[in-house]
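We emphasize that the prediction below concerns an isolated chain of 415 residues; any contacts that depend on oligomerization or on bound cofactors are therefore not represented. The input was used exactly as deposited, without trimming of termini.
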Amino acid sequence: MTKKFLFLTVIISEFVIYSVYAQSTNFTPVDNNGNPIDLTGKHPSAQVITTAVPFLTISPDARAGGMADVGAATSPDANAVYWNAAKLAFADKDMAASISYTPWLRKLGINDMSLSYLSGYKKLSKQEAIGVSLNYFNMGSITFTDQNGNAYQDFKPKEYAVSVTYSRKLSKYFSVAPTIKYIYSNLSGNLTIPGSTTVTRPANGAAVDLAAFYTRDTKTSGMDSKISFGAIISNVGSKMSYTTGTTKDFIPTNLKVGLSYQIQTDQYSKVIFSVDANKLMVPTPPIKVATSTSDSIVKGRDDSNAGLIGGIVGSFTDAPFGFRQELREIILSYAIEYWYNDLLAIRGGFFDENKYTGNRKYFTLGCGIRYQSFGIDFAYLLPMAQNNPLAETLRFTLHFDFKSKVRQEDILIEE
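Result of the prediction step, given as a C-alpha coordinate string:
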Protein backbone atom coordinates (compact mmCIF):
# COMPACT_ATOMS: atom_id res chain seq x y z
CA MET A 1 0.00 0.00 0.00
CA THR A 2 2.84 2.37 0.81
CA LYS A 3 4.46 1.78 -2.57
CA LYS A 4 1.18 2.34 -4.35
CA PHE A 5 0.54 5.53 -2.39
CA LEU A 6 3.91 6.91 -3.43
CA PHE A 7 3.21 5.83 -7.02
CA LEU A 8 -0.08 7.71 -7.18
CA THR A 9 1.16 10.70 -5.24
CA VAL A 10 3.78 11.24 -7.91
CA ILE A 11 1.13 11.03 -10.62
CA ILE A 12 -1.36 13.33 -8.94
CA SER A 13 1.35 15.89 -8.29
CA GLU A 14 2.04 15.80 -12.04
CA PHE A 15 5.67 14.88 -11.63
CA VAL A 16 7.49 12.16 -13.58
CA ILE A 17 4.52 9.96 -14.48
CA TYR A 18 6.35 8.09 -17.19
CA SER A 19 9.38 7.19 -15.08
CA VAL A 20 7.22 5.35 -12.53
CA TYR A 21 7.49 2.26 -14.66
CA ALA A 22 10.58 3.15 -16.71
CA GLN A 23 13.79 1.65 -15.38
CA SER A 24 15.68 4.91 -14.93
CA THR A 25 17.95 6.86 -12.62
CA ASN A 26 17.65 10.65 -12.60
CA PHE A 27 21.14 12.02 -12.01
CA THR A 28 21.23 15.59 -10.73
CA PRO A 29 22.94 18.08 -13.06
CA VAL A 30 24.53 19.92 -10.11
CA ASP A 31 27.13 18.96 -7.53
CA ASN A 32 26.81 19.34 -3.76
CA ASN A 33 27.52 23.04 -4.08
CA GLY A 34 24.83 23.59 -6.67
CA ASN A 35 27.27 23.95 -9.54
CA PRO A 36 26.48 22.42 -12.97
CA ILE A 37 28.44 19.27 -13.76
CA ASP A 38 29.48 17.79 -17.09
CA LEU A 39 27.40 19.83 -19.50
CA THR A 40 29.59 18.77 -22.43
CA GLY A 41 27.13 16.09 -23.50
CA LYS A 42 29.73 13.30 -23.24
CA HIS A 43 28.25 12.01 -19.98
CA PRO A 44 25.02 13.99 -19.63
CA SER A 45 22.51 13.74 -16.84
CA ALA A 46 19.49 11.55 -17.52
CA GLN A 47 16.75 13.38 -19.38
CA VAL A 48 13.61 11.28 -18.98
CA ILE A 49 10.72 12.65 -21.02
CA THR A 50 7.48 12.66 -19.04
CA THR A 51 3.86 12.77 -20.21
CA ALA A 52 0.32 12.37 -18.98
CA VAL A 53 -1.55 9.07 -19.54
CA PRO A 54 1.62 7.00 -20.10
CA PHE A 55 -0.48 3.81 -20.04
CA LEU A 56 -1.06 4.50 -23.75
CA THR A 57 2.56 3.45 -24.37
CA ILE A 58 2.34 0.09 -22.56
CA SER A 59 2.25 -2.92 -24.85
CA PRO A 60 -1.27 -4.31 -24.35
CA ASP A 61 -1.07 -7.75 -26.02
CA ALA A 62 1.05 -10.86 -25.53
CA ARG A 63 2.21 -11.33 -29.12
CA ALA A 64 3.92 -7.92 -29.31
CA GLY A 65 4.84 -8.24 -25.64
CA GLY A 66 6.83 -11.37 -26.46
CA MET A 67 8.56 -9.48 -29.28
CA ALA A 68 9.85 -6.50 -27.23
CA ASP A 69 6.92 -4.27 -28.26
CA VAL A 70 7.48 -4.72 -32.00
CA GLY A 71 4.30 -4.21 -34.02
CA ALA A 72 4.55 -1.55 -36.73
CA ALA A 73 5.15 -3.96 -39.62
CA THR A 74 4.31 -7.43 -38.31
CA SER A 75 1.48 -9.47 -39.84
CA PRO A 76 -2.02 -8.17 -39.09
CA ASP A 77 -4.29 -9.44 -36.34
CA ALA A 78 -6.97 -7.89 -34.14
CA ASN A 79 -4.35 -6.05 -32.06
CA ALA A 80 -3.27 -4.07 -35.13
CA VAL A 81 -5.79 -1.46 -33.96
CA TYR A 82 -3.15 -0.49 -31.39
CA TRP A 83 0.10 -1.11 -33.29
CA ASN A 84 -0.71 -0.06 -36.86
CA ALA A 85 -4.33 0.01 -37.95
CA ALA A 86 -3.32 0.26 -41.63
CA LYS A 87 -2.45 -3.46 -41.45
CA LEU A 88 -6.14 -4.36 -41.05
CA ALA A 89 -6.80 -3.81 -44.76
CA PHE A 90 -4.45 -6.76 -45.42
CA ALA A 91 -5.99 -9.09 -42.81
CA ASP A 92 -6.93 -12.48 -44.27
CA LYS A 93 -9.87 -13.08 -41.94
CA ASP A 94 -13.33 -11.62 -42.38
CA MET A 95 -13.54 -10.75 -38.70
CA ALA A 96 -11.40 -11.20 -35.59
CA ALA A 97 -11.28 -10.16 -31.95
CA SER A 98 -8.87 -10.49 -29.05
CA ILE A 99 -8.81 -9.88 -25.33
CA SER A 100 -5.58 -9.31 -23.40
CA TYR A 101 -4.69 -9.11 -19.72
CA THR A 102 -1.47 -7.95 -18.03
CA PRO A 103 -0.96 -7.95 -14.24
CA TRP A 104 1.04 -4.79 -13.56
CA LEU A 105 4.00 -4.09 -11.23
CA ARG A 106 3.61 -7.38 -9.34
CA LYS A 107 7.35 -7.27 -8.67
CA LEU A 108 6.66 -4.34 -6.32
CA GLY A 109 4.15 -6.40 -4.35
CA ILE A 110 1.14 -4.59 -5.85
CA ASN A 111 -1.55 -7.20 -6.49
CA ASP A 112 -4.53 -5.21 -7.78
CA MET A 113 -3.14 -3.28 -10.75
CA SER A 114 -3.67 -4.54 -14.29
CA LEU A 115 -3.96 -3.55 -17.93
CA SER A 116 -6.81 -5.01 -20.00
CA TYR A 117 -7.23 -4.65 -23.74
CA LEU A 118 -10.15 -5.59 -25.98
CA SER A 119 -9.92 -5.14 -29.75
CA GLY A 120 -11.47 -6.36 -32.96
CA TYR A 121 -12.01 -5.63 -36.63
CA LYS A 122 -14.43 -6.39 -39.47
CA LYS A 123 -13.50 -6.49 -43.16
CA LEU A 124 -15.92 -4.44 -45.21
CA SER A 125 -14.39 -5.68 -48.45
CA LYS A 126 -11.07 -6.96 -49.73
CA GLN A 127 -9.85 -3.38 -49.70
CA GLU A 128 -11.06 -1.99 -46.39
CA ALA A 129 -11.78 -2.75 -42.75
CA ILE A 130 -12.97 -1.08 -39.59
CA GLY A 131 -11.65 -1.71 -36.09
CA VAL A 132 -12.39 -0.80 -32.47
CA SER A 133 -10.53 -1.19 -29.20
CA LEU A 134 -10.78 -0.51 -25.47
CA ASN A 135 -7.61 -0.05 -23.41
CA TYR A 136 -8.32 -0.11 -19.65
CA PHE A 137 -5.73 0.51 -16.92
CA ASN A 138 -6.91 -0.49 -13.44
CA MET A 139 -4.79 0.95 -10.62
CA GLY A 140 -6.54 -0.94 -7.83
CA SER A 141 -7.44 0.93 -4.67
CA ILE A 142 -5.63 3.60 -2.67
CA THR A 143 -6.12 5.37 0.63
CA PHE A 144 -5.11 9.03 0.59
CA THR A 145 -3.62 10.48 3.76
CA ASP A 146 -2.67 13.93 4.94
CA GLN A 147 0.81 15.00 6.01
CA ASN A 148 0.23 13.47 9.43
CA GLY A 149 -0.71 10.09 8.00
CA ASN A 150 -4.42 10.42 8.73
CA ALA A 151 -6.62 8.70 6.14
CA TYR A 152 -9.28 10.89 4.59
CA GLN A 153 -10.31 9.23 1.32
CA ASP A 154 -10.37 5.84 -0.35
CA PHE A 155 -10.29 5.82 -4.13
CA LYS A 156 -9.92 3.50 -7.12
CA PRO A 157 -7.93 5.26 -9.87
CA LYS A 158 -8.48 4.16 -13.45
CA GLU A 159 -7.70 5.17 -17.01
CA TYR A 160 -9.03 4.05 -20.36
CA ALA A 161 -8.97 4.84 -24.06
CA VAL A 162 -11.57 3.94 -26.70
CA SER A 163 -10.42 3.83 -30.34
CA VAL A 164 -12.20 3.56 -33.68
CA THR A 165 -10.31 3.12 -36.95
CA TYR A 166 -10.83 2.76 -40.68
CA SER A 167 -8.22 0.99 -42.80
CA ARG A 168 -8.09 1.17 -46.60
CA LYS A 169 -5.81 -0.12 -49.35
CA LEU A 170 -4.65 2.56 -51.75
CA SER A 171 -2.92 -0.01 -53.97
CA LYS A 172 -2.20 -3.70 -54.05
CA TYR A 173 0.70 -3.22 -51.64
CA PHE A 174 -0.03 -0.06 -49.65
CA SER A 175 -2.67 0.96 -47.11
CA VAL A 176 -3.40 3.80 -44.68
CA ALA A 177 -5.59 4.22 -41.62
CA PRO A 178 -6.75 7.13 -39.47
CA THR A 179 -7.79 6.36 -35.90
CA ILE A 180 -9.68 8.52 -33.44
CA LYS A 181 -9.65 7.87 -29.71
CA TYR A 182 -11.19 9.19 -26.53
CA ILE A 183 -8.93 9.20 -23.45
CA TYR A 184 -10.10 9.32 -19.82
CA SER A 185 -7.85 9.42 -16.75
CA ASN A 186 -9.23 9.58 -13.21
CA LEU A 187 -6.38 9.40 -10.70
CA SER A 188 -7.94 10.95 -7.62
CA GLY A 189 -11.46 12.12 -8.40
CA ASN A 190 -12.30 15.59 -7.13
CA LEU A 191 -9.81 15.89 -4.30
CA THR A 192 -8.64 19.02 -2.50
CA ILE A 193 -4.93 18.69 -1.80
CA PRO A 194 -4.30 19.27 1.96
CA GLY A 195 -2.76 22.65 2.67
CA SER A 196 -3.64 23.92 -0.80
CA THR A 197 -6.55 25.38 -2.72
CA THR A 198 -5.76 23.16 -5.69
CA VAL A 199 -8.50 20.65 -6.55
CA THR A 200 -7.72 17.58 -8.63
CA ARG A 201 -10.14 16.33 -11.25
CA PRO A 202 -10.43 13.62 -13.90
CA ALA A 203 -8.67 14.43 -17.15
CA ASN A 204 -10.05 13.61 -20.56
CA GLY A 205 -9.20 14.37 -24.14
CA ALA A 206 -9.21 13.20 -27.74
CA ALA A 207 -6.41 12.11 -30.03
CA VAL A 208 -5.81 10.68 -33.48
CA ASP A 209 -3.40 8.14 -34.97
CA LEU A 210 -2.20 8.21 -38.57
CA ALA A 211 -0.78 4.93 -39.91
CA ALA A 212 0.65 3.55 -43.14
CA PHE A 213 1.64 0.02 -44.17
CA TYR A 214 3.41 -1.48 -47.18
CA THR A 215 3.84 -5.21 -47.80
CA ARG A 216 4.99 -7.23 -50.77
CA ASP A 217 5.73 -10.88 -51.51
CA THR A 218 9.13 -11.68 -52.98
CA LYS A 219 11.66 -14.49 -53.38
CA THR A 220 14.88 -15.12 -51.45
CA SER A 221 17.17 -17.85 -52.78
CA GLY A 222 14.15 -19.52 -54.31
CA MET A 223 12.16 -19.39 -51.06
CA ASP A 224 8.92 -17.47 -50.62
CA SER A 225 9.41 -14.35 -48.55
CA LYS A 226 7.67 -11.12 -47.67
CA ILE A 227 8.94 -7.69 -46.74
CA SER A 228 6.80 -5.16 -44.89
CA PHE A 229 7.20 -1.55 -43.73
CA GLY A 230 5.03 0.29 -41.24
CA ALA A 231 4.83 3.79 -39.81
CA ILE A 232 2.44 5.36 -37.33
CA ILE A 233 2.14 8.68 -35.54
CA SER A 234 0.00 7.94 -32.49
CA ASN A 235 -1.70 9.97 -29.78
CA VAL A 236 -1.72 13.30 -31.57
CA GLY A 237 -3.96 15.30 -29.30
CA SER A 238 -4.38 18.22 -26.96
CA LYS A 239 -2.77 18.47 -23.53
CA MET A 240 -4.53 17.12 -20.44
CA SER A 241 -4.85 18.58 -16.94
CA TYR A 242 -5.47 16.84 -13.61
CA THR A 243 -6.23 20.00 -11.65
CA THR A 244 -8.42 23.09 -11.82
CA GLY A 245 -5.25 25.13 -12.38
CA THR A 246 -3.70 26.11 -15.67
CA THR A 247 -1.00 23.41 -15.71
CA LYS A 248 -1.43 20.94 -18.57
CA ASP A 249 0.68 17.99 -19.66
CA PHE A 250 1.46 16.62 -23.10
CA ILE A 251 0.07 13.20 -23.92
CA PRO A 252 2.57 10.62 -25.32
CA THR A 253 2.55 11.54 -29.01
CA ASN A 254 4.84 8.95 -30.57
CA LEU A 255 6.44 8.22 -33.93
CA LYS A 256 7.02 4.54 -34.68
CA VAL A 257 8.55 3.05 -37.83
CA GLY A 258 9.18 -0.61 -38.42
CA LEU A 259 10.50 -3.21 -40.82
CA SER A 260 9.57 -6.88 -40.98
CA TYR A 261 11.05 -9.63 -43.14
CA GLN A 262 9.40 -13.05 -43.40
CA ILE A 263 10.89 -16.11 -45.06
CA GLN A 264 9.28 -19.50 -45.65
CA THR A 265 12.12 -21.91 -44.82
CA ASP A 266 10.19 -25.06 -45.76
CA GLN A 267 6.67 -26.31 -46.33
CA TYR A 268 5.70 -25.89 -42.69
CA SER A 269 8.06 -23.33 -41.19
CA LYS A 270 8.49 -19.59 -41.49
CA VAL A 271 10.67 -17.12 -39.64
CA ILE A 272 9.98 -13.40 -39.22
CA PHE A 273 12.66 -10.85 -38.31
CA SER A 274 11.37 -7.45 -37.18
CA VAL A 275 12.70 -4.16 -35.85
CA ASP A 276 10.88 -1.04 -34.64
CA ALA A 277 12.16 2.43 -33.79
CA ASN A 278 10.20 4.79 -31.49
CA LYS A 279 10.57 8.43 -30.57
CA LEU A 280 8.32 10.46 -28.32
CA MET A 281 7.27 13.67 -30.07
CA VAL A 282 6.98 15.78 -26.93
CA PRO A 283 9.43 18.34 -25.49
CA THR A 284 12.62 17.22 -23.79
CA PRO A 285 12.97 18.95 -20.40
CA PRO A 286 15.88 21.39 -20.09
CA ILE A 287 18.65 21.01 -17.52
CA LYS A 288 18.04 23.33 -14.61
CA VAL A 289 19.98 24.44 -11.59
CA ALA A 290 18.09 25.07 -8.37
CA THR A 291 18.72 28.43 -6.71
CA SER A 292 17.36 29.96 -3.53
CA THR A 293 14.58 31.70 -5.43
CA SER A 294 13.85 29.65 -8.54
CA ASP A 295 15.24 27.18 -11.07
CA SER A 296 17.36 28.56 -13.88
CA ILE A 297 17.93 26.82 -17.21
CA VAL A 298 21.57 26.10 -17.97
CA LYS A 299 21.12 23.86 -21.01
CA GLY A 300 18.29 23.42 -23.50
CA ARG A 301 14.98 25.23 -23.68
CA ASP A 302 11.69 24.97 -21.84
CA ASP A 303 8.86 24.06 -24.25
CA SER A 304 6.46 22.87 -21.56
CA ASN A 305 4.02 25.65 -22.51
CA ALA A 306 4.21 25.00 -26.23
CA GLY A 307 1.10 24.04 -28.16
CA LEU A 308 0.39 20.72 -29.86
CA ILE A 309 2.13 21.48 -33.17
CA GLY A 310 4.94 23.41 -31.52
CA GLY A 311 5.62 20.53 -29.14
CA ILE A 312 5.70 17.97 -31.95
CA VAL A 313 7.93 20.00 -34.28
CA GLY A 314 10.17 21.17 -31.47
CA SER A 315 10.68 17.63 -30.17
CA PHE A 316 13.25 17.05 -32.94
CA THR A 317 15.44 20.02 -32.00
CA ASP A 318 14.95 20.76 -28.30
CA ALA A 319 17.32 18.26 -26.65
CA PRO A 320 19.82 20.09 -24.41
CA PHE A 321 22.77 18.28 -26.03
CA GLY A 322 21.58 18.67 -29.60
CA PHE A 323 21.29 16.07 -32.32
CA ARG A 324 23.34 13.51 -30.42
CA GLN A 325 20.76 13.49 -27.64
CA GLU A 326 17.88 13.39 -30.12
CA LEU A 327 19.34 10.11 -31.38
CA ARG A 328 19.58 8.85 -27.80
CA GLU A 329 15.84 9.37 -27.42
CA ILE A 330 15.11 6.75 -30.10
CA ILE A 331 14.07 3.41 -28.61
CA LEU A 332 14.90 0.30 -30.66
CA SER A 333 13.13 -3.05 -30.43
CA TYR A 334 14.38 -6.21 -32.14
CA ALA A 335 12.35 -9.40 -32.49
CA ILE A 336 12.24 -12.83 -34.08
CA GLU A 337 9.15 -15.00 -34.48
CA TYR A 338 8.97 -18.62 -35.65
CA TRP A 339 5.77 -20.25 -36.88
CA TYR A 340 5.24 -23.95 -37.48
CA ASN A 341 2.37 -24.70 -39.86
CA ASP A 342 0.59 -21.53 -38.66
CA LEU A 343 -0.26 -23.44 -35.50
CA LEU A 344 2.61 -22.93 -33.07
CA ALA A 345 4.67 -19.76 -32.58
CA ILE A 346 7.82 -19.08 -30.55
CA ARG A 347 8.99 -15.50 -30.08
CA GLY A 348 11.79 -13.47 -28.59
CA GLY A 349 12.92 -9.86 -28.53
CA PHE A 350 15.14 -7.20 -27.03
CA PHE A 351 14.01 -3.72 -25.97
CA ASP A 352 16.81 -1.15 -25.95
CA GLU A 353 16.44 2.32 -24.44
CA ASN A 354 19.45 4.59 -23.95
CA LYS A 355 20.69 4.82 -20.36
CA TYR A 356 20.37 8.61 -20.44
CA THR A 357 16.71 8.61 -21.47
CA GLY A 358 15.17 5.88 -19.31
CA ASN A 359 17.54 2.89 -19.42
CA ARG A 360 14.85 0.27 -19.95
CA LYS A 361 16.68 -2.73 -21.35
CA TYR A 362 15.06 -6.13 -21.30
CA PHE A 363 14.57 -9.39 -23.15
CA THR A 364 11.16 -10.84 -23.86
CA LEU A 365 9.99 -14.37 -24.56
CA GLY A 366 6.66 -15.55 -25.88
CA CYS A 367 4.73 -18.38 -27.45
CA GLY A 368 1.40 -18.82 -29.15
CA ILE A 369 -1.01 -21.46 -30.40
CA ARG A 370 -3.64 -21.19 -33.12
CA TYR A 371 -6.27 -23.85 -33.72
CA GLN A 372 -9.12 -23.24 -36.14
CA SER A 373 -10.79 -20.02 -34.96
CA PHE A 374 -9.13 -19.91 -31.52
CA GLY A 375 -5.69 -18.79 -30.37
CA ILE A 376 -3.77 -17.96 -27.22
CA ASP A 377 -0.49 -16.06 -26.63
CA PHE A 378 1.80 -15.72 -23.61
CA ALA A 379 4.68 -13.30 -23.00
CA TYR A 380 7.30 -12.96 -20.27
CA LEU A 381 9.72 -10.09 -19.57
CA LEU A 382 13.34 -10.57 -18.43
CA PRO A 383 15.07 -7.28 -17.45
CA MET A 384 18.83 -6.87 -17.63
CA ALA A 385 18.97 -4.88 -14.38
CA GLN A 386 18.13 -6.30 -10.98
CA ASN A 387 15.15 -4.97 -9.02
CA ASN A 388 13.50 -3.71 -12.17
CA PRO A 389 9.78 -3.09 -11.42
CA LEU A 390 8.91 -4.60 -14.81
CA ALA A 391 10.61 -7.92 -13.97
CA GLU A 392 8.54 -11.07 -14.45
CA THR A 393 5.75 -9.19 -16.21
CA LEU A 394 3.33 -11.67 -17.79
CA ARG A 395 0.87 -11.01 -20.61
CA PHE A 396 -1.99 -13.17 -21.84
CA THR A 397 -4.06 -12.81 -25.02
CA LEU A 398 -6.98 -14.81 -26.39
CA HIS A 399 -7.72 -14.62 -30.13
CA PHE A 400 -10.94 -15.36 -31.95
CA ASP A 401 -10.61 -15.48 -35.74
CA PHE A 402 -13.25 -16.13 -38.38
CA LYS A 403 -12.49 -17.35 -41.88
CA SER A 404 -12.80 -15.08 -44.87
CA LYS A 405 -16.05 -14.91 -46.75
CA VAL A 406 -15.45 -14.61 -50.49
CA ARG A 407 -17.56 -11.87 -52.06
CA GLN A 408 -18.25 -11.56 -55.77
CA GLU A 409 -17.14 -7.90 -55.77
CA ASP A 410 -13.83 -8.92 -54.21
CA ILE A 411 -13.20 -11.40 -57.00
CA LEU A 412 -13.85 -8.68 -59.56
CA ILE A 413 -11.47 -6.29 -57.79
CA GLU A 414 -8.69 -8.89 -57.78
CA GLU A 415 -9.21 -9.62 -61.45
